[in-house]
Amino acid sequence: MKKFIDEFKDFAFRGNVLDLAVGVVIGSAFTAIVTALVNYIIMPLVGILTGGTNIKNLSIDVGGAKLEYGAFLQAVVDFILIALVIFIFIKIINNAANKFKKTEEVTKEVEIPAAEQYLKEIRDLLAEDKNKTNL
């Protein structure tokens, strides 16, 4: 039993599992933000542009069965809008991260190890010597 508990602790508290748990929690919070943006800001604007038509209520009667295809269309529109919003957020975050990296790279001075510097100097001297003998 102790071996089982130790194995479980190793599994549960491994870095990957904790990272995944943090990712799920942040992902669900991000989902709430994106869903609110789509439902309360973007969809009302779409409603204004479409003249107040609510596609969610569209349906057709076929042989006594009511096919509510509007709900499906609404889900497709929601998916496209949510994917677009996530794409825009990720693009903004990546651009900000890249700007930060570039400024960090500019300020960071790379120091070349002495051995590598000597090898470069030898290479350059050999290249000069080769050029002189070819003339």
Keywords for this entry:
two-stranded antiparallel ribbon; mainly alpha; 135 residues
Short overview:
Channel that opens in response to stretch forces in the membrane lipid bilayer. May participate in the regulation of osmotic pressure changes within the cell. The chain has 135 residues and is mainly alpha-helical.
Report what the structure shows.
This protein is mainly α and 135 residues long. The protein has a domain at 1-53. 79% of the residues lie in helices and 4% in strands. The protein has 4 helices and 2 strands, in the order ααββαα. It has helices at 2-12, 15-49, 69-107, 114-134; strands at residues 60-62, 65-67. It has a two-stranded antiparallel ribbon with strand order 1-2. A hairpin with a 2-residue loop joins β1 and β2 (65-67). α2 (15-49) packs across α3. The chain is elongated. The mean pLDDT is 83. Channel that opens in response to stretch forces in the membrane lipid bilayer. May participate in the regulation of osmotic pressure changes within the cell. It is a multi-pass membrane protein. Homopentamer.
The helix-strand sequence is HHEEHH
Distance between the termini: 82 Å
Helical amount among residues, as a percent range?
A: over 70%
Shape: elongated
How many strands in all? 2
- Gyration radius (Cα, Å) is 30 Å
What proportion of the residues form beta strands (DSSP E)?
under 5%
What summary fits the major beta sheet? 2 strands, antiparallel
Secondary structure category: mainly alpha
Ranges with pLDDT <50 over ≥5 residues? none
Question: How are the strands ordered across the major sheet?
Answer: 1-2
**Average residue-wise pLDDT:** 83
Per DSSP, the total helix count is 4
